[in-house]
Amino acid sequence: MKILRVGMYWPQTGGPPNGTRQTSRILAREHDVAVVHMREEGEKRTGHWKDGKVEVYQEKLLFPRRLTSLQAFFQTTKRAWRLRKGVDIYHVHGPFFAGIGFLDRERPMVLHIHGYPSLEALSRERVKRSSFSFRFIRWMEKKAVKRADAIIVVDSTIGRWARSELGADRKKVFLIPNGVDTEMFSPDRGGEEGGSKEKEIKVERGRFRRGKEIRRRCKLEDDGRLIVCIRRFAPKNGVENVLEGFIEYVKEYDGGVEKQKGRERQKGGEGQESHLLLAGGGPLRRSLAKRIKEEKMENRITLAGEIPHARLPAYYNSADIIINSFTHIPLVREHPLSSVREGLEKGRPICTSLTTLEALSAGKPVILSTVGGTYSGVDHEDLGAVVPDGHPEQMANAIHTLLSDNEKANKMGARAREYVVHNRSWERVTEKMLRVYDFVLRDTG
Fold first, then answer.
1. What integer best gives the mean pLDDT of the chain?
2. Could you check whether 2-179+426-444 and 197-423 share the same CATH topology?
């Protein structure tokens, strides 16, 4: 089968480029796969190149920072039209990459929806709901949905939105949540390529060396407890909820700001000082730093910039707990959520986040802060804990409970790893995509 995919791709970062690359490389083992995508500002590579067996065609923005979505639409459509010969199926990642489907209606098109383009533009205050720009984006979304022979959504909330707001046919909507590289993100690997036993030993040593460097940068003793949140400091990501939860934890359970000398802490009983590492960089960094200074917690909380993808496993493996967060996008109706396992099985947004999946794959218990979350204490039979955003006292309690019992927390992490390996590897995700392709080819053939 010859597959032409249009959308974001490596070396761009984030969920969609990573997922497109991972599944394309797996598909290319048995199929002909080509990808058309846009070069971001600052990238040096352009033109035609190969990523393993995947043929990659990277188009250049003619006018950086101006009408980038329209440029992407026309540039990728032009390239895809030139590559259409012999193609069996188009797989496009978003309405502004669906141009080839409008031009060539003889071949089936799968539309992959990773988010809410129109609503995200609203939430970032780039457009107003009454503006022409908003109406145009929404028109493009509806046109792409109508043209698609099948629609893949990465979470159940997007699926409901596509059906209720964009008019998607329920029979054509397929929920395929994101996956994770379970070899790169594992408890005993540092994210480097596998190989001989000697190389595995080097990877293992490197993992501990990097982990110690991370903990030393946070000024932690060997028995200190490290809580990590890797999330861009942007309004929709809710990193401020993680910060407030940790501040509440320190005040309520971890002996306050000043270290208590000569005696074990009376509250919590953890016995070791804890530290929060927030990594990701972004526009909220200054306000987060100001809040940390107000609480005099500069020695308990570290802010770091964006972490290169290859170094992420070391950060996960250095942590005792991983926290991930997500806040509300205007006009999106959220599902209630009470457990991590439920979120994974039903494809809820916080559980399709790559940060969540990478943490679980690394064998770490997670705390997920999200709209619609409900918390009634930590269930140690679950894979972590879910708390509602804007409730720091509940996050503080979840942190305290997980840090208070290492054995139970480690068992939660082991179950999380097992679940992700069996259900969320990129190989499993690719198998589901192939079933969608088969459905489309049968339906249109």
1. 88
2. yes
Please state the CATH superfamily assignment of the domain spanning residues 2-179+426-444 in this structure.
Glycogen Phosphorylase B; (3.40.50.2000)
Q: How far apart are CA 269 and CA 167, in angstroms?
A: 54
pTM confidence score: 0.89
Which 3-state string (H, E, C) describes the chain? CEEEEECCCCCCCCHHHHHHHHHHHHHCCCCEEEEEEEECCCCCCCEEEEECCEEEEEEECCCCCCCHHHHHHHHHHHHHHHCCCCCCEEEECCHHHCHHHHHCCCCCEEEEECCCHHHHHHHCCCCCCCCHHHHHHHHHHHHHHHHCCEEEECCHHHHHHHHHHCCCCHHHEEECCCCECCCCCCCCCCCCCCCCHHHHHHHHHHHHHHHHHHHHHCCCCCCCEEEEEECCCCHHHCHHHHHHHHHHHHHHCCCCCCCCCCCCCCCCCCCCCEEEEEECCCCCHHHHHHHHHHCCCCCCEEEECCCCHHHHHHHHHHCCEEEEEECCCCCCCCCCECCHHHHHHHCCHHHCCHHHHHHHHCCCCEEEEECCECCCCCCCCCCEEEEECCCHHHHHHHHHHHHHCHHHHHHHHHHHHHHHHHHCEHHHHHHHHHHHHHHHHHHHC
Cis before 11 (ω within 30):
yes
Mean pLDDT confidence for 326-355: 90
Tell me, rounded to whole angstroms, the distance of Cα 273 from its chain centroid.
Answer: 29
Q: Which of 206-210, 234-238, 303-307 has the highest mean pLDDT?
A: 303-307
Structural domain spans, the chain: 2-179+426-444, 197-423
Q: What CATH number matches the domain at 197-423, 3.40.50.2000, 3.40.50.2300, 3.30.450.40, 3.90.226.10?
A: 3.40.50.2000
Q: How many percent of the chain have pLDDT more than 90?
A: 73
pLDDT of residue 124: 79
Residue 356: closest CA among 327, 391, 321? 321
- Distance between terminal CA atoms of the chain? 14
pLDDT in tens, 81-120: 999 999 999 999 999 999 999 999 999 999 999 999 999 8
Residue the block writes with tokens 């895809």: 80
